[in-house]
Amino acid sequence: MVEWTEQERSIITSIFSNLDYEDVGPKALSRCLIVYPWTQRYFASFGNLYNADAIKTNPNIQAHGTRVLHGLDRAVKNMDNIKSTYAELSVLHSEKLHVDPDNFKLLADCLTIVIAAKMGSGFTPEMQATFQKFLAVVVSALGRQYH
Amino acid sequence: MSLSAKDKKTVKTFWAKISSNGETIGADALSRMLVVYPQTKTYFSHWKDLSPGSAPVKKHGATVMAGVADAVAKIDDLTSGLLSLSELHAFTLRVDPSNFKILSHSILVVLAIMFPTDFTPEVHVAMDKFLAAVARALSEKYR
């Protein structure tokens, strides 16, 4: 059972309430596909991913990035139950999407970097620690139902 | 995943832009690492003060970034260029190599914070590859 202090809860809600999901989601996903190109293997049906510019402007990637952020929102609203909140999504990623769970961490790292760029020095070491703890719990929950 | 000519050029160009901030980058990266990954504090039990921005953290951050600057200059042959640093890490410091990734990530976060427009995904991938190559060179002598 993951323990969250009051301060950690308020840091997470505050970070997410100041986010434009339609901006940050696509930025994080496209950054992941550019920085870790092997992750493109899961998006073969999305169209042109031939170079960084194509990835950044691909409308399917943009839509999917937004979807991922909205998915994260469910964890923000259920911080005490992230494992059960994501049980179905975990099954989906394992059995239907066949995503190597190590990839979740790669996307999490890219999201951290996009948020750091957005928040600047407001993204203090303490906020980074809390944010990364949150993402680690999410990543673990998404990998939980793999077998 | 070795550095292409394009990677090297991207790293050198970006580094030229940011190198005057080396000490600040190093201090912030190290400060963050010690807070976000508390297990890294085990290597610094001899310091009086491990809090972000403390004197030993700032000093060591500058030392680390001077090493990175040296690596940029020797980017065409990191293994021989960083030989003495590699021996230092292997025989004296004996930092577990998993920590190189941790510090690299911390440096990348600081670069995103300080240079949000310049730290594009293209620069990000080149810098990530570069820092990984530096880590490989530093672990050369481990076993």
Molecular structure report:
The complex is a heterodimer of chains A (147) and B (143). With 147 residues, chain A is mainly alpha-helical. Helices cover 70% and strands 0% of the residues of chain A. Chain A is globular and about 45 Å long. Chain B has 143 residues and is an all-alpha fold. Chain B has seven helices and no strands. In chain B, helix 1 crosses helix 7, helix 2 packs across helix 3 and helix 6 runs antiparallel to helix 7. The radius of gyration of chain B is 15 Å and the shape is globular. Chain B: Belongs to the globin family. Chain B: This is Globin domain-containing protein. Chain B: InterPro entries: Globin (IPR000971), Globin-like_sf (IPR009050), Globin/Proto (IPR012292), Hemoglobin_a-typ (IPR002338), Hemoglobin_oxygen_transport (IPR050056), Hemoglobin_pi (IPR002339). Chain B: Keywords: Heme, Iron, Metal-binding, Oxygen transport, Transport.
Task: Write a short abstract of this structure.
With 147 residues, chain A is mainly alpha-helical. Chain A is built from 8 helices and no strands. Chain B is mostly helical and 143 residues long.
